[in-house]
């Protein structure tokens, strides 16, 4: 029985040591550096043009995270198909998202909507929720805010949640 315990201990120790000995094989470039520096207050303008209005939920997180780090003012310029989510007539369908956008607005985030895109989609200013400001055109609005020193952000609405496991579904917890 004692020999079995010794053998088991040796096998267990060698199994546990494998990832450590193999780690060097998979890290020919070393380990990432960490630089969690403070940022100066920086104003940002988000360029939003999403095919799927549901992606605004990801935008919410982008804005929250960016605002936390930059500590500056935030402007969102909407000029794509996502604008239909901001229409009062679609509130029931997009309520969760619109409530989050309204929350951001109450925290000082400004929402600007392209009049050209809105008209092309068949909407008028009075069709939109009250925290929206309609502006003449989306691209010139982005230029306007950049001319005031705002830094341009064009967030791709892709979530990174569980991206680690996309190619390795057996590892997903």
Description:
Helix content is 40%, strand content 16%. The protein is built from five helices and five strands. The protein has a five-stranded parallel beta sheet with strand order 4-3-2-1-5. Helix 2 packs parallel to helix 3. The radius of gyration is 24 Å and the shape is extended. It starts with a helix and ends in a 20-residue tail after the last strand.
Task: Write a brief structural summary.
This protein is α/β, with parallel strands linked by helices.
Strand order across the largest sheet: 4-3-2-1-5
- CATH topology of the largest domain, by name, is Hypothetical Protein Ychn, Chain: A
What fraction, in percent, of the residue positions are helical? Answer: 25-40%
Q: How many β-strands, per DSSP?
A: 5
Mean pLDDT over all positions: 86
Largest sheet: 5 strands, parallel
Question: Which spans of ≥5 residues are poorly predicted at pLDDT below 50?
Answer: none
Q: Work out the radius of gyration.
A: 24 Å
How many domains, in number, for the residues? 2
Q: Which structural class do the helices and strands define?
A: alpha/beta
Global geometry: extended
CATH class identity of the largest domain: Alpha Beta
CATH superfamily placement of the largest domain = DsrEFH-like
Do you know the CATH architecture of the largest domain?
A: 3-Layer(aba) Sandwich
Oligomer: single chain
Order of helices and strands: HEHEHEHEHE
Measured between the Cα atoms of the first and last residue, the distance is 36 Å
Number of helices: 5
β-strand percent reads 15-25%
């Amino acid at each position: 029985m004692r020999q079995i315990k010794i053998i088991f201990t040796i096998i267990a120790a060698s199994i546990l040591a494998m990832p450590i000995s193999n780690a060097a094989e998979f890290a020919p470039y070393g380990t990432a550096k960490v630089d969690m520096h403070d940022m100066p207050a920086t104003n940002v303008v988000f360029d939003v043009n999403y095919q799927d209005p549901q992606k605004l939920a990801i935008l919410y997180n982008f804005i929250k995270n960016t605002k936390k780090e930059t500590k500056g003012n935030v402007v969102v310029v909407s000029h794509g198909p996502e604008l239909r989510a901001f229409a009062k007539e679609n509130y029931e369908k997009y309520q969760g998202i619109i409530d989050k956008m309204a929350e951001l607005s109450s925290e000082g985030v400004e929402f600007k909507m392209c009049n050209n895109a809105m008209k092309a989609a068949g909407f008028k200013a009075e069709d939109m929720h009250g925290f929206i400001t309609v502006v003449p055109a989306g691209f010139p609005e982005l230029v306007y805010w950049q001319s005031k020193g705002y830094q341009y952000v064009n967030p791709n609405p892709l979530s990174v949640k569980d991206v680690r496991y996309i190619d390795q579904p057996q590892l997903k917890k």
